[in-house]
Amino acid sequence: MQTKENIKKWFKAARVDDFPKNGGACVKYKDKQIAVFNFTRRGEWFACQNMCPHKKEMALARGMIGESKGEPKVACPFHKKAFSLCSGENINGEEDPVTTYPVKVEDGYVYIGLS
To answer: Where is the Rieske domain (predicted)?
Structure first.
């Protein structure tokens, strides 16, 4: 898990309006696909790798977001494997965690923190 303290670069992903409310979209940075989530019900933004470790499919940006015991999560749209949007841990405990990235919003744009 990356934190805002160890960020070397902030990648300007897209305008806030380019992301669906209470949903996700995929952005590309070099060879990375990053799922970005506008969790408007919580008033928060999250980002993680787009690849689900279960079947190695680039699908998490299309997953359903919600909460598990107050923890924001995303569930893979294909196999329903759920991952914490804060830590990346697999909530089901069956798969490897996903990489998460810090997100900030400034002047109407979404930025993703990269180390």
So the answer is: 11-112
For residue 49, the SS3 value is strand
What's the domain range around 32?
4-114
> For residue 50, with 0-12 CB atoms within 10 Å meaning exposed, 13-18 middle and 19 or more buried, which class applies?
buried
Q: Where on the phi/psi map is residue 88: left (φ > 0), alpha (ψ -120 to 50), or beta?
A: left
Task: List the CATH number of the domain containing 23.
Answer: 2.102.10.10
Handedness of CA 41, 107, 48, 84 (dihedral sign): negative
Domain count for the chain: 1
User: Considering the entire predicted model, what is its pTM?
Assistant: 0.92
Distance CA 12, CA 18 (A): 12
